[in-house]
């Protein structure tokens, strides 16, 4: 497994147990569906952020405005200098997606709990049952700068790269969905059966690298740095080019982005968070089916 002691952006269960009662540490569970996760059990003292209801824009397919993010943080007792520990359901997908958003909104000290709910449960560590959140004194939070440029790729930018044949030359495009999604056999994973796109397939030139290759399937923990380096190198995903990750809505893409940027120190990695939910619904967007890039 990854050596968490060498990295600022990730903690293990032992670290969290030692710091659960630290006043400046806030543990946040980020769930796509709290009814199957936080509302059943959660880490003691943690608070809940619901991905769809709390972090998404109320009207647009986008994220909440900076002012709304500030109010959300304050309601959870978070200040600008708070150390935030994120974990959640769906193999930490939405926790890492939230990490990506926290970084874009300029929060300095945010970290991922390695293994998330899966590892915490396997280690039989303390839990709180039910949906009651711990209440904290209201925080004071101010976003000073929003940095989408180094985190996010928009449709128009990626379309230019595809049409100008930059994919595979100056830019590596990584599709982290399942092989069946990549080939076009299915248009969404089983857990999102009601969220289909108009067509299946992948963006031309994309390399298929399912996100799950980076974790231990039994514990949800990240694999060792050496094994991760070997996996990405063998897939042709190299450090000397810009890397763009995508999936269906951005959650799995953020997971692989985190691995590349923070565990393997790739210098230029961004997420196309519009992902297949956008690309697969755009009239005339270039699409390829099958297993080849």
Automatic annotation (TrEMBL):
Keyword Hydrolase: no
A Pfam family per the record: Rhodanese
SUPFAM superfamilies given in the database record: Rhodanese/Cell cycle control phosphatase
Alphabetized SMART domains for the sequence: RHOD (SM00450)
InterPro entries: Rhodanese-like_dom, Rhodanese-like_dom_sf, Thiosulfate_sulfurtransferase, Thiosulphate_STrfase_CS
PROSITE patterns xrefs: RHODANESE_2, RHODANESE_3
Domain of life of the organism encoding this protein: Archaea
Secretion signal span: none
A GO molecular function held by the record: thiosulfate-cyanide sulfurtransferase activity
Domain Rhodanese: 21-129, 167-288
PANTHER family membership: THIOSULFATE SULFURTRANSFERASE (PTHR43855:SF1)
This protein's name: Sulfurtransferase
Native source organism of the sequence: Caldisphaera lagunensis (strain DSM 15908 / JCM 11604 / ANMR 0165 / IC-154)
